[in-house]
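Posting here for the record, re: glutamine.
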Amino acid sequence: MLFRSIVADTKYIFVTGGVVSSLGKGIIAASLGKLLQARGYKVTIQKFDPYINIDPGTLNPYEHGECYVTVDGHEADLDLGHYERFLNIPTTRANNITTGRIYQSVIDKERKGDYLGKTVQVVPHITDEIKRNVKLLGTKYKYDFVITEIGGTVGDIESLPYIESVRQLKWELGRNCVCVHLTYVPYIAAAKEFKTKPTQHSVKQLQELGIQPDVLVLRTERELSQTILNKVALFCNVEKDAVIQSIDVPTIYEVPLVLQRQKMDEVILRKTGLEVGPTPEMKNWNEFLAKKTNATETVKIGLVGKYVELQDAYKSIDESLLQAAIYNDRKLDLHLFHSEKITDENAAETLKDMDGILIAPGFGQRGIEGKFSALKYARENDVPCLGICLGMQCMVIEFARDVLGMKDANSTEMDPHTPYKVIDLMEEQKNVTNMGGSMRLGGYDCVLEKGSKVFDAYFKSHIQERHRHRFEFNSEYRDKFEAAGMKCVGTNPESGLVEVVEIPELKWFVGVQYHPEYNSTVVNPNPLFVSFVKAAIDNKK
Ligand code: GLN
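Prediction output follows.
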């Protein structure tokens, strides 16, 4: 990627949302970022979440979907996963700020006496801290564009300090600051009409808070006519060509093209005083989409986990599998299996049609026995299988119980008194009492053994992948496992921790302590997923 970094002053784009939540602000931010990046600009995206938690690491998936992990070990909002998948550049802890972090930093400063006897208030102290964090990426890393997604919906009590900060920044930065507001235009079937009133109200609400949006993106399930767009422009004080529609598309990866067709990137360049230039080709991106469209055959992957009913709980895994299928010229046919429902008795019947099985990460006892049953089925029937984090730990436990005859072998997470602690708490975790941000988090090196499946996947021996766990393979048992056919083929060079196990005798049976799904993008799919899906396809033949 050629970085021009030609922009004298960083341009700041805010993405706010109105009418309802779940409109996909993250996808709009990522798509706009992609379009600007394709023009050679250096772009980053950050998310501000208005909740009090310091990070989403302590939230369960019912609250907040998947917890994403950055290379520098920050537990982050899942939108950062979209940013990385679209832009193909890593995010860091600076890309995700919460109200909790803002307040913590202000309170720390207050305790140090930094405010010199002043009363510490939301305006200006909290808003100043928000503004400092917005600008940090621009000033420190010299990005041309910093896109900031404001979580929540305009009108929420808790997002008010963020909206006020945007108002102040718009005033301070002038042309270098643009506000994109995302709303929803419902279609009332009985009246056969689109309704723009919610959008008008939402913009009014922003205006009451002192912000005139520069660009409106209207989410819609059906094509909006130019008349509707013009009407919104008129009522909302927005230029006609700055009212963009974002219609539902079969894949989120088409959204950048939908926006490009309406020249949203050009509108942004014009508003920020930059030269527009020729429309970029987006070659890799289009090739990926063409592959997706052209694939006719499918690959059936079964995902076994305890949160399968939640749309966003395994977001990065879903996306990594989709990318891997597309790069293997297949359509992904993903089947979700609730681990609590799988037993030794029904595993074969339940999973018999799967070309490959993925055992999901997780915490705690619930659903774990079903993971063992699924793994036993995969191992005994030589079905390609990928275990991720807890999934890898389950591979080890199931092997210990069934092959090594270690009855009641377990992880000390599930059973602290197990006679065989084949998975045990890491040494450095033993004295940890604070739950937030205290796991083994972020990128760690791993050395892969030549000749292993995992080496063949990455085609190199030194890799780095991201982690999020407290427990580890207990190396005391390493020799026993290896003698019986489960090999430790990836280790951390500093600590010696086992990061990868596999059964070489089987077609493809690999467990990884790390999370390859955090590191898979549209133009750079994770090799382990590509290899797993390929094995699943070969299994089908
Ligand atoms: N609960 C396990 C551990 O803490 C696995 C974590 C995970 O799957 N992310 O080690």
